Amino acid sequence: MSAMKLSSDSVSHSAYNLTQSANTPERHTLTVLVENEPGVLARVVGLFSGRGYNIESLTVAEVDHFDKRSRITIVTSGTPGVIEQIKLQLGRIVSVYGVNDLTVEGNAVERELGLFKVAGKGEARIEALRLAEIFRANVVDSTLDSFVFELSGNPTKLDAFADLMRPLGLAELARTGVAALPRGSK
């Protein structure tokens, strides 16, 4: 058998020599317009779990009562190849009318709602109220030893608020997940 000698050029252009950026996970926000019927959400989630893909955030709501359609917003991470596979596989589900990758398609508005229960007294309580005002969080419940704050914004804003509230007595946290729409008239 003869051995084939590879030049440095042929190795650098090889499909096996992928760049690091092609293997770096990216966060993507996908919206999926689906028929609002039993089992559709289970099929979508099953696609993710069956292939080992992670869902970071998932929201679902009916958006067209007349045509019985719902919008599923999914935040996931993966390499560009994995994200493409997810989009293709979602598009093959019978009850799916369309899949959009808001991360690739351009600017999008992303918002999330969070409820934060902060238990504390004295200076910690005063500091929690001060920070809530800076973040424009609303007090939706108050007792003598706790507050429940409501905050909406992009996910990083909610993360930052939670990080600041932890040392002040963050006791519980509930988040809705991301809701997103593309910017502009399209």
Automatic annotation (TrEMBL):
GO process annotations (BP): isoleucine biosynthetic process; L-valine biosynthetic process
EC numbers, comma separated: 2.2.1.6
Domain of life: Bacteria
Record-linked InterPro entries: Acetalactate_synth_ssu, Acetolactate_synth/TF_NikR_C, Acetolactate_synth_ssu_C, ACT-like_dom_sf, ACT_dom, AHAS_ACT, AHAS_small-like_ACT
Pfam family, one: ACT_AHAS_ss
GO MF terms, alphabetically ordered: acetolactate synthase activity; acetolactate synthase regulator activity
Catalytic reaction list: 2 pyruvate + H(+) = (2S)-2-acetolactate + CO2
Record-stated family: Belongs to the acetolactate synthase small subunit family.
Protein name according to UniProt: Acetolactate synthase small subunit
